[in-house]
């Protein structure tokens, strides 16, 4: 993965001083190559208002919207105690398996908050070619992934529980595991859950041909 980082001047500085600082090498964009164990997907801030029936709205976001973080163009601001940075990310390689960690929990000095936003995602045929840098796209014949496992968090951050959805490769059926209970589940129901961690498997060439047949 390529990580592009640009340091930002302090927001309270006068415009002229900001402009001068941006000319310094310290504030020029830098790029580093980095490996990753999993990809963290950031959720938009959940709305706090209620609808006209006084019911809390459950926000939803498409998977491809939060994957845009890795398209090489989307910038996000990161703040530290002293400094602010703009960062953008671009994938340079697609491994056989990808792990997505959907960032539902935020911590501060007092408590943990959970973002309940539902991520709308297809179970199969997720193509990640557009998130690769142009010069490495040709080296990747297969860029399509299928979901094989989905970990869900239900309830409050401190009192919630976990469920796991697993694909049985031999039969193509999905099962839900919670503690010692194992039940069948329809693929359509998986997409309605508060997904937290997902595992995706890249299709091999023969699988891709079968899907296209």
TrEMBL record:
The gene is Usp39_1. Residues 1-203 form the USP domain. One of its GO terms (biological process) is protein deubiquitination. This is ubiquitinyl hydrolase 1. Pfam families: UCH. It catalyses: Thiol-dependent hydrolysis of ester, thioester, amide, peptide and isopeptide bonds formed by the C-terminal Gly of ubiquitin (a 76-residue protein attached to proteins as an intracellular targeting signal). Its EC number is 3.4.19.12. Keywords: Hydrolase. It comes from the Eukaryota. Gene3D superfamilies: Cysteine proteinases (3.90.70.10). GO terms for molecular function: cysteine-type deubiquitinase activity.
């Amino acid at each position: 993965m390529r990580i592009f980082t640009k340091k930002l001047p302090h927001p309270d500085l006068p415009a002229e001083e900001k402009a001068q600082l941006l000319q310094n090498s310290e504030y020029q964009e830098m790029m580093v190559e980095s490996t990753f164990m999993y990809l963290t997907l950031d959720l938009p801030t959940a709305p706090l208002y209620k609808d006209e029936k006084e019911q809390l709205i459950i926000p939803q976001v498409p998977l491809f919207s939060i994957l845009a973080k890795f398209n090489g163009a989307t910038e996000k601001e990161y703040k530290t105690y002293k400094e602010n940075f703009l960062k953008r990310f671009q994938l340079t390689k697609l491994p056989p398996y990808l792990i997505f960690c959907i960032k539902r929990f935020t911590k501060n000095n007092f408590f943990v908050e959970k973002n309940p936003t539902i991520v709308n995602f297809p179970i199969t045929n997720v193509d990640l070619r557009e998130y690769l840098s142009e010069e490495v796209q040709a080296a990747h014949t297969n860029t399509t992934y299928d979901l094989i496992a989905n970990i869900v968090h239900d309830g409050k951050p401190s009192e919630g529980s976990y469920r796991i959805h697993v694909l049985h490769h031999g039969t193509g059926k999905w099962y839900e595991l919670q503690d010692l209970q194992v039940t069948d589940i329809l693929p359509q129901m998986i997409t309605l859950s508060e997904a937290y961690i997902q595992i995706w498997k890249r299709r091999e060439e023969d699988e891709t041909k079968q899907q296209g047949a």
